Amino acid sequence: MAGEPVNVNEFQELAREALPKMYYDFYAGGAEDQYTLKDNVEAFKRITIRPRVLVDVSRIDMSTTVLGYNISAPIMIAPTGLHKLAHPEGEAATARAAAASKTIMILSTTSSCTVEEVASSCNAVRFFQLYVYKRRDITAALVHRAEKNGYKALVLTVDVPRLGRREADIKNKMIAPRLKNLEGLLSIEVDSTSGSNLEAYAKETMDASLCWKDVEWLRSITNMPILIKGILTREDAIKAAEIGVAGIVVSNHGARQLDYSPATITVLEEVVHAVGGKIPVLFDGGVRRGTDVFKALAFGAQAVLIGRPVVFGLAAKGEHGVKRVIQMLKDELELAMALSGCPSVKDITRSHVRTERERLLSML
């Protein structure tokens, strides 16, 4: 592809050219038929914007807060694993790009730089994404390290009692490098002659018994606020609000877990209604345009998290690529706000979007 990319999707093409097939497939792929993977993106296309005109939009303010922390725009960095497969500087480069963009990065447990390396890479507000392992002492050790190194919140991923079936990784016999954060804590030699060693590793280590009462246990070992990531239903949203977590991330794990789970944008409003403003709702899945961010905010998200676009930016152009991806989304969001008559993020309301169902009903 000639020239500089002009939108986030073009970074995916650059990443495809830059990366070995196995790694590109690992980042880009979803579970099984990849129905949800496609639908995460496609579902945004079924929502239209209802722009309001003759509003003074000479100044646009995209800034917002998440858990009381100011960010320059409602666009954060989702936790994604193994950034060194994309670029030698890995998560340290991503962290610097997030800091330069004045936004929050959520570091993955499965990062290829340690909690400590990322903390010392630059000054910024950062959250830590947590998996709960069968050995609780390992989980507790990770939590304490994150807290000690200044991470401001825990993002507990709850949709991986087992690893989703990612067929590209199985075909490619994807071998994941050792997880830096678990060095000296967990050494599991897994035999994965039949497929991906990620799958074998997850089976050996992940705690499939994790349930609601364990959130209490987690709360008892840390002062960090806890967000729950991986909620897709009203029922679970109500439960999360009841047990008093600090927030929810509506997420289907980038369509890497249960195929034929709903596209996240189609259930965001259900979750927002269920929590009734008691706790903030963040959102991820399929965000590729500033208009996608706008739509998620209109349905009640406090901010969106971007995953794959960050990794593709990193693979294509390192730290600069990640900055460009965030800046492109910010520029597009700013334009969408101006053209929709929304000078600030609080001006973006439910009346600014129309679902396909609403459109059809209006034609009856």
Automatic annotation (TrEMBL):
GO terms for cellular component: peroxisome. Its cofactor is FMN. It is an enzyme of class 1 (oxidoreductase). This is (S)-2-hydroxy-acid oxidase. Glyoxylate binds at residues 131, 166, 253, 256. One of its GO terms (biological process) is hydrogen peroxide biosynthetic process. Its EC number is 1.1.3.15. FMN binds at residues 79-81, 108, 129, 157, 229, 251, 284-288, 307-308. The active site is at 253 (proton acceptor). GO terms for molecular function: (S)-2-hydroxy-acid oxidase activity; FMN binding. Keywords: Flavoprotein, FMN, Oxidoreductase, Peroxisome.
